[in-house]
Design a protein that fits this description.
Two copies of one chain form a homodimer.
Chain A: H1 5-21, H2 27-33, H3 40-53, E1 56-57, E2 66-67, H4 69-79, H5 87-99, H6 104-119, E3 122-126, E4 135-142, E5 147-154, E6 159-165, H7 172-186, H8 196-205, H9 210-230, E7 232-235, H10 239-242, H11 249-260, H12 262-272, E8 279-282, E9 294-303, E10 306-316, H13 321-343
Antiparallel strand pairs in A: 1-2, 3-7, 3-10, 4-5, 5-6, 8-9, 9-10
Helix pairs in contact in A: 1-3, 1-4, 2-3, 5-6, 5-13, 6-13, 7-8
Chain A binds a DNA duplex (30 and 30 nucleotides) through residues 24, 26-28, 38-42, 44-45, 47-48, 58-64.
DNA sequence: TCTTAGCACTCAACGATGGAGAGTGCTAAC
DNA sequence: GTTAGCACTCTCCATCGTTGAGTGCTAAGA
């Protein structure tokens, strides 16, 4: 069977209607609300065809039709038009994000808030991974007799600070000297690139402070390992409660588990995203079982051509794809611009 | 009417049964399961009395009884015995918390996780307020041509670091000099005590860097203001989904709003807690409307005799008060010990 | 050949009906 | 003061029409 113009229009109408009402759509509704110039009987025939082709489904005989994953996929790929986002929304994004440029974490926290607020879905923003950062400076500060503060500064201003206990020294000048050597040796490396050779050099030069250096390097490694779970921000948890598909507590649980275990969510987002712009995963296309009735729209932001992280939206399969897509696209583009401007 | 021994036993039995089953308790159930040595008819008479006194309620004629807020209050005040927590639980707490002593934030995050895990309710841990901290050191580090990193170190190792833009200077030695002056002037003050006089002194001594100093002091103030919302950790969100009282999405929403707006939750906890140990607020005793069907058990932890913060449990009014109380009490006591040991 | 009006059919949703069961209050006997 | 017995109440649950939205099919019309 072929997908002719009228079938496309009918499919489009069904999806539009279903997305707003969340109720199965009948042939009469289509004939009345979307004037395609034909009667409900004709629509009925088209719908039977669309069902045969797998684009729509019938929850039970004698109910209206509901789009299938395949139907949404066709819609997303060929039918929908991404709207330009409105001037006021644009302004809102500009203001909110610019205000929070200072701290990387605040920036992405705000991003998730803004995105969820503008779309009424769940929004997820993944901070740039520490492992992608380039070491800029390491500074040791004496806290008191036995404690030293280690501050790690990266090119993107990501800072990890940690208190390390050491009885070896707390002399300001000694610590400064150690800081300088560490900085000199490690500057310019990405955290994940730091290798045996460099470490050996450091151990050699700072032979007298081996224990202390070891603690500091362990700290670095910790920062690497912990970074993943720490750096996911989720906004709009409450929004999902308004969606009729989550009126059922058991379904809700699936999602809340994800929110609770941020690392899983992060992984899903990372895996889904592709290098080139916007990605949309619909229902069963998602690998993770728990979100087979959800869709994810996400996009990556970049600095210097390198992909730094992902921002996305998670909502029911019955989602306002055009608006959500525009939002995600716009916000990641703007994030890239901001980062470029600020850290270049 | 008087509260005699048998009435106490009946009330105790009703509460015990209702807490485990979540179903209204009938006279026969009491007579069968809790051998009080009398028949169901006698229990029935006692229950009628207890209802008249306001300790129990009947959802509708011909259903069993349910404890009222007043009933729980009587139970908590006079009937329940707080159990000693088990050795394995004790060990679990010791290990989990000790492992996370390094970072204040990790410690309290873990506290909320441990507490929620051991009780199956929602657990909330409030980090020591920054405003209670005493300034120990302020350090300025040059990041690049235009940016300076401000690190604030307090007596309890709480650190706030922020990037400040300034074109005035980025000379290492100048910054060090400024750091020293700031540290000297502010050391020993609690953040909330920093007053006009001190600030004027600082402005006077650092007249040439007024703009920079102003930025830094604004940073301090920010740290103060933001600290509240940042420093609440909530564990066990998923636990509440298992409670039958939250099978209804609308009720659930009330709680999730609280979790989303952590500042409110924090405030509730602060207001509820009293100086002297454990506090229990039952149902309607809570001021906040949204949790009139919840109870809060919380206690404060201290350092040096000063109350630093609060740790608590939030669950349905139908709660395992004895176990939860013991847990909260034990964990706050242990937190106090840990802090004493570590920061004294 | 495509479109449409008409009609019989299906099925979820809703409300009414009527036991079954759990629990109560009251009374009278112990 | 306690208890057995009994009538009564009310929720819960399953059953059963009724209603209404929607379908598929057929036959007539363009």
């Amino acid at each position: 069977m072929q997908m002719d113009e009228r079938k496309k229009k009918v499919l489009h109408a069904i999806i539009q209607d279903y997305v707003t009402t969340a109720e199965p759509v009948g042939s009469r509704t289509i004939a009345r609300k979307y004037n395609l110039g034909v009667s409900s009987a004709t629509i009925r025939n088209e719908m039977a065809d669309l069902e045969e082709m797998g684009y729509i489904e019938q929850p039970h005989t004698s109910s209206g039709r509901v789009p299938s994953d395949k139907g949404y996929r066709y819609y997303v790929d060929f039918l929908m038009k991404k709207p330009r986002i409105s001037g006021s929304e644009e302004q809102y994004i500009y203001i909110q994000l610019k205000e929070n440029m200072q701290h990387m974490e605040n920036l992405f926290k705000k991003t998730s808030e803004v995105l969820s607020h503008l779309t009424s879905y769940l929004a997820v923003a993944v901070c740039p991974m520490v492992s992608e950062s380039v070491v800029k400076q390491i500074q040791l500060l004496p806290l008191d007799q036995e404690k030293i503060l280690v501050v790690l500064i990266s090119d993107k201003g990501i800072i990890d600070s940690k208190v390390v206990s050491s009885t070896i020294t707390n002399d300001v000048d000694t610590l400064r000297a150690i800081s300088d050597i560490l900085t000199e040796k490690l500057r310019g490396y990405r955290l994940q690139e730091i290798n045996r050779t460099v470490l050996n050099e450091i151990y050699f030069e700072l032979a007298g402070y081996k224990r202390l250096v070891k603690l500091i390097l362990e700290d670095l490694e910790d920062a690497l390992n912990n970074s993943k779970e720490k750096r996911v921000f989720i906004g709009g948890t409450l929004n999902i409660l308004s969606q009729p598909e989550f009126k059922d507590v058991e379904r809700l649980r699936n999602l809340l588990v994800l929110i609770d275990e941020q690392s899983v969510l992060c992984k899903i987002l990372q895996e889904t995203s592709s290098e080139k712009g916007l990605t949309i995963s619909i229902g069963g296309e998602n690998k993770y079982q728990g979100i087979h009735n959800c869709s994810i729209i996400n996009a990556t932001y970049k600095l210097d051509g390198r992909v730094l992280g992902t921002v996305g939206i998670l909502g029911p399969t019955r989602m306002m794809y055009p608006k959500a897509s525009s939002m995600v696209e716009f916000i990641t583009k703007y994030l890239s611009d901001l980062l470029e401007e600020h850290y270049k």
